[in-house]
Amino acid sequence: MIKHLSKDYYVIIIQELESDFLEKLNADNSLTRGITGLALYNHINQQIKLTGIAASGLECIHICSWGMNTRTPFIKLYPLFQGSLNDHLRLALGGAINVFPVYNKNLNALEIYNNINNTYPPSGMLLGYSYRYLESLKTLNIQTHMSSYEGDLDVQVLY
């Protein structure tokens, strides 16, 4: 993805280096990621004029929670599925699709669905994301949530 985007854009890669595992499990949700994302965008934008935001995979979901507040003219997203995470998991439960084919792991759609729809999501991780983070985004649909975005929105589903 980075090689593809680097052909047309300068790419800044952001990596979280949180070393406190318990902090990640307990504080990882769309609100905290949204606050961090917006603060990071504003900080970098003061130094380098940013022309857009790009994300792939599950990261696309949380970009919706703060991307519109940046007033960036361009957002390019490469999500793993169309619709909400819950809708995607329901299709996987019915056997219509694999859960996340891009990850070379045999993931159980029912287990993921039950964990993120539990009244009290378990404390655990899935593909580097806490269940609390996934629970906070389970019903968010990129196309619906970003419908009021005034910039150029390019969404290309990977699978």
Protein traits:
159 residues, alpha/beta, three-stranded parallel beta sheet, two-stranded antiparallel sheet, 8 helices, 5 strands, 41% helix, 11% strand
Protein described:
The radius of gyration is 16 Å and the shape is globular. By secondary structure, it is of the alpha/beta class. A hairpin with a 2-residue loop joins β3 and β4. The protein contains eight helices and five strands, in the order αααβαβααββααβ. The strands form two sheets. Strands 1-2-5 form a three-stranded parallel sheet, covered by helices on one side. A two-stranded antiparallel ribbon has the order 3-4. α3 packs across α4 and α5 packs antiparallel against α6. It has one domain.
Quick overview of this protein structure:
The chain has 159 residues and is of the alpha/beta class. It has eight helices and five strands. The protein has helices spanning 2-6, 21-27, 30-47, 59-66, 85-93, 109-116, 131-136, 142-145, and strands at 53-56, 74-78, 125-126, 129-130, 152-155.
Biggest pleated-sheet summary? 3 strands, parallel
Please tell me the total number of domains. Answer: 1
Number of strand elements: 5
> In sequence order, what are the helices and strands, one letter per element?
HHHEHEHHEEHHE
Look at the helices and sheets and give the structural class: alpha/beta
- Beta-strand content estimate: 5-15%
- Indicate the percent of residues in helices: 40-55%
The unreliable regions are none
